């Protein structure tokens, strides 16, 4: 199979994993952050300035233009008499309450799958085609990358743009053409304009320049111009960072970007070491599907041993640049007080390229005489994250527990019967329930009978209810192969 065909099938696999269950949760929007992108993009029709910088604005504007193109095409189809066809076959495209979320999710999924291209090109540029294929397959099947690509959020497009920045950075290794410096800086700037932490990719350009020229002042103008291109890329995507700098620079609330930088908090000393241990031995292995991170970690240790024994040749230094950047990013992010998995997505292109180089080097060392062993080893490395990613995608096709409770309430709760709930994540569902709905259990005694929706986290104790409340379990939905929390519904009488 040709390398182009193989890359095509890798991208196709990425699309299948990410588009499976892409309408999850509809008609509810159950992820609290998705409305930030969609509502801001829709609001751009009236005000080009979103007036908040919790996230930068590039992905907001990209979605706005996509929405406008879609709206015009939909109008054209309707004018040509396709309304009845759309009502029968694609009613979702006529439902403005969810269609824009659908479009943004699809775009995010596509960009996630296409991230394989720059990662492949980088691995090929630094080592060989085999390294590129391994790196591309790795970023395609990372379980958390697959999971997060199902939402209308900026992290996945940030990784896509950052991966292109890494590719043009890798080109600097063998070609000092100004174009590569400018494109590397520009794509990293666009990445930062999608989500701020994408700007950390600038470290890779500086490191390549330092390794290439030893003297950091030699041809420093190339590095300066790359930095300026990065600033241009950021401002192109988020122009109101300049035009509305007063809001951008606010530190007293979430509307300001500077507040966002401080809000994550930081830790030091023993707490930092605890964070780092959690990241290295639990969070990242799980997010990467275990085997990919193990190969990455072993290659890091092998490289450190070569450095210690002074067996590193000059040509090897360029191969480990993505590794050095990934280590820097992991060490930096581990100091955050809040360790959300999406924060570490900036490491994905660098870790996957490092993984691809490490696995390809290992297989080349094993030699052609052990072809069967090599094939079995490669299958073992990739099958674990692939299965984990596929199982996670399957969850998106099975519905959300909150969605299933809503359908049960619609079918089984008599008109006028109150519904009580405790967990705020049930709020979007509760807002659509036609019966009397109350958050909290404080008013259960105000009705002779009713229903209680409880998040089955082990914290709710029936003994907390007034003694005259007699609950009966009527529905128990676990979240095995489903999204959402495990939920229990009780019917009660006084």
TrEMBL record:
One Gene Ontology cellular component annotation held by this UniProt entry:
plasma membrane
Supply the InterPro entries for this chain. Answer: LipidA_mod_glycosyltrf_83, RgtA/B/C-like
Span of domain Glycosyltransferase RgtA/B/C/D-like: 105-232
Task: Enumerate the UniProt keywords alphabetically.
Answer: Cell membrane, Glycosyltransferase, Membrane, Transferase, Transmembrane, Transmembrane helix
Q: How does it sit in the bilayer?
A: Multi-pass membrane protein
Alphabetical list of Pfam families matching this protein: PMT_2
Q: Which residues form the signal peptide?
A: none
Locate the coiled-coil region(s) and give their ranges.
none
Residue intervals passing through the bilayer: 58-77, 98-121, 127-146, 158-174, 186-210, 222-242, 288-305, 317-334, 346-365, 372-391
Give the UniProt subcellular location, in the record's own words.
Cell membrane
GO BP terms: namely:
lipopolysaccharide biosynthetic process
Question: Which superkingdom?
Answer: Bacteria
State one molecular function term (GO). Answer: pentosyltransferase activity
PANTHER family, A to Z: MANNOSYLTRANSFERASE YKCB-RELATED (PTHR33908), MEMBRANE PROTEIN (PTHR33908:SF11)
What name does UniProt use for this protein?
Glycosyltransferase RgtA/B/C/D-like domain-containing protein
